[in-house]
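G., the chain you wanted modeled:
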Amino acid sequence: MIEALEVTVHIEAPPETVFPYFTDPARYTQWMGGTAMLEPVPGGGYRVGMRGGVAAVGEFVEIDPPRRIVFTWGWTHDHAVAPGSTRVVVTLEPVDGGTLVVLRHHGLPGDEQREHHGKGWTMYLDRLAVRATGGDPGPDPNI
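Predicted structure as tokens:
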């Protein structure tokens, strides 16, 4: 395994505004996925539907509003990154009147997966930054 992938974005909104975009299904799908079933408690599951019946699935490990979320991550269609095989840690830090979101994805099995997920997380965190400040990021290209 390789070191954790890290993606950051600064959002011009406080952590209290940004955090629900990770835990409320209606808000989640405004920046990622076509459907979202979320049970944001430790041990609760989630499923985020994408194009072609593919879904990101996992389990919430830690929820600390509005500062930190930890969840397992995997894909229904991908044995390289199977459900529960990796872990994502998201921290939200108040900075300069907004929020610094730091996403660390641990356990990706190689450079190809790291590159693929890096592109995806970068795109989605940029979409989150637009939505959490009242903008419209447009349709998700992966649904």
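The chain has one domain: 5-132.

Shout if anything looks off.
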